[in-house]
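Form 12-C: Joint structure prediction
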Amino acid sequence: MTVPARCVVRQIAISVSTLILAASLHASQQAAAPAPAQDATLSVAGDVAHPLTITTADLKGMPRTTVTITDQGREVKYSGVLVGEVLARAGAALGRDLSGPAVSTYVLASAKDGYQAVFSLAELDPAFTSNEIIIADSVDGQPLFEYQGPFRLVAPHDKRGARSVRMLQRLEVVRLKK
Amino acid sequence: MRRVLLGVWLVWAATFVGSAQPGFEWNLPRGFPSPRVPADNPMTSAKVDLGRHLFYDTRLSANQQQSCASCHDQTRAFTDGRERAVGSTGEVHPRNSMSLVNVAYAGALTWGNPTLRRLEDQALVPMFGDHPIELGLSRPGTQLLERLETDGRYRSMFAAAFPETPKPFSIDNVTKALASFERSIISARSPYDRYHTSRDNDAISPAARRGEVLFFSQPFSCFRCHNGFMMAGATDFDGRQATAEGGIEFHNTGLYNLPGLLSYPAPNTGIYETTKRPEDVGRFKAPTLRNIAVTGPYMHDGSIATLDGVLDHYAAGGRTIGDGPYRGVGHDNPNKSPSVRGFALTAEQRADFLAFLSSLTDNELLRDPRFSNPWIAH
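Section 2 - Result
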């Protein structure tokens, strides 16, 4: 896929209750078969104009966002790309197009092992909310561990980590009312 | 006037500094938050040192046959290698000795008592409990205090540990010192720690790395009960205390399934013993998996000898006992945790799991002189 030249790094310091993340970025999710999978891809499909398949290199070339969460008493920085940025490249209905019946559209995030979590499209749209939910590919400046990556959703405002899907493999946009 | 004020300040400062106790350096590794320490028992080196001496002192048992270390052996990550602990009079404890490693972070301290939350309070149980008898002391502990006070080393150590107290020899101070020593036992130097904190990919084997992925995978879901940096149930640290509503969990893993209300053999009925709620029968704490390879036998009653056996238990979704008084199909225990569903396990996956669990052993801790017996020359 084509990657634009612009590169914006945003830093967001977010304080999330520790309770959360103890169970959180581990306990919430379920991974699958042991495989490094650094060459794995992330597909963006469903009700989008341009279905995509994204590699780790693709993600590195997109505008970057870093979010800081508190995990068991210590700050952890996850870096990656806003989900909204990726969805925009796939031609999902965002911004002004996200109104009326389209507001009921959701995104199904699936992991390699079949674990799934749901987000409304609106909460992933930077024009709609400031949730800063990212597709992370690094933690504290290092690649994700094998049980986490190579792609991981990080929803820093969630009080529990159940939607911070590890080993993310697919984002499917589902429009309920067309 | 300024000189007078300065002089007063200097006198006050000298007095304060003179009575101040040296603090305690945790030297925590990256990823380990500051432990939660009770406000009335701040950590000091003097208290930790005193606690270490008390921990290893057989004078803490009525018949002077046992110390805390009798059931909490450093070389076994502060467990005892027995199925169930044996007290100073030979009475067998209902449960397996728990590891004291990283106990400073433990949200719940014992296998099945959700109300014991402070190490200072917990120490009273082995000291004075009579059901079962452990150290066998009788209240109010006068006998113990007299023994300790006759030892000149203790007179110095108690005075150093509790300088603000005119009469430092008290049971309260004994438990505070023991708790301080126990909190100091931090395990963070396993190969797994080097892999995670130093990003040293060679610190653990490829098999161990595969085992980690399995550990966090849906079919096995080990992480659901053994989570966080402790790989345990509820974890406390500075600024956070787990509660029954947020963090503290006890689990029935289907180890037994006896007919009737008490599906687990008494007196090991889990937190039911405290809560008396039928649904709590068989619910026990998920212990830390750090150093798990050296803390067998396993489970609350030591009834599984090896980690291989533990994997069999969870793979079956509960243990089946074919004969004897405990005959039953644990898989069908009505209180069983939904996380214990059972799974298929290949020989390679089994080996990977075991490699991963072995990578959690902190060999430096097992021989660290800071935690060893101070009464014998090394």
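Section 3 - Comments
Chain A has a mean pLDDT of 82. Residues 9-25+36-174 of chain A form a domain with the Sulfite Oxidase; Chain A, domain 2 fold (CATH 3.90.420.10).
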